[in-house]
Amino acid sequence: MKDSVLRPRRTGVDSVLKVHSSELFIKREDRIFFSQGTKIRKLLGIYKNLESKLRSGEIQKVILQGNLHSNAILAGSLFFKFVEVPTKILGYSRDPKLITPASIISKRFSEMELYPTRKEWGEVVEDTTKSLPPNEVLIPEYLFTTSALQGLMSLWEEIDPMKYDRIILDVGSGLTWISSILWGKLPMTGICLGMEKEKFIPWIKLRLSSLRLPNIDLPWESLIDPREKIEGDFSYGKKGNIWLEKSSEYQKRFGIYLEPIYAAKSISMIESMMKKRELEGRILYIYQGGILQGGVSSIL
């Protein structure tokens, strides 16, 4: 099982939709390790950067930080469990009664240190950073590191730019979006589902220095706020009945389960834009995974 996560297989591409003279393809990152997709590519980059110190025992524990219920915490807990690295979650949860796949898996596989507010958590992270034992490593929130960015390059190495005219992907933390720009072999459209575009731009600008990319010229015009294209609740993390129904509809039409928090929303917007000829040509959507957040009973 350790080899299966450290050596993920190349993911396939499915043609799912033709509108006018255009065609939509889906890159099946959801097929990587419990549907953790691009998060696993990021974690592989982080692991490879730490591997020699992990093997020598110089590093004995990895600390993941952030919202207990996030995809990054879920993927990190799973990944480090299967590569046999002791893990601690330094996280926060505003609702102590909330139970999600991420919280269930994290509590099962990791040591926990939780706080009730993001402010209190942030203060503890600052103190922890200053007093971190030499045999522990604190991974930034959202896996937002240069090594994770390097791990994502394996995704683009699998894509033949001669086969497509445009890449489309969901934008959460923005790391995968940035990696696509660094690759730079096709036009790219990012769908702002993690936060609204007007909030995302200043947010990501503050974090570019941590990637050692303070002077990168990012194409802000390539970002789309889905609220400007179709109707629906695009609040972060919300799936709602309309998106659950869309997810079910797409599964029947395409034979692919598109999770309702990100993918079903994006495909709905893409299809609408294709019908209006706002998107044309051979379009490749990067399905980044995340199915476990819709249910975890299959692995417990």
TrEMBL record:
Quick check: keyword Membrane in the entry?
no
Q: Known SUPFAM superfamilies for this protein?
A: Tryptophan synthase beta subunit-like PLP-dependent enzymes
Q: Name one GO molecular function term.
A: D-cysteine desulfhydrase activity
Entry-linked PANTHER family: 1-AMINOCYCLOPROPANE-1-CARBOXYLATE DEAMINASE-RELATED
Domain of life according to the entry: Bacteria
- Can you say what this protein is called? 1-aminocyclopropane-1-carboxylate deaminase
> Which family does the similarity line name?
Belongs to the ACC deaminase/D-cysteine desulfhydrase family.
Keyword Thylakoid attached: no
Q: Which cofactor does it need?
A: pyridoxal 5'-phosphate
Name the InterPro entries on file.
ACCD_DCysDesulf, TrpB-like_PALP_sf
Q: Which UniProt keywords apply?
A: Pyridoxal phosphate
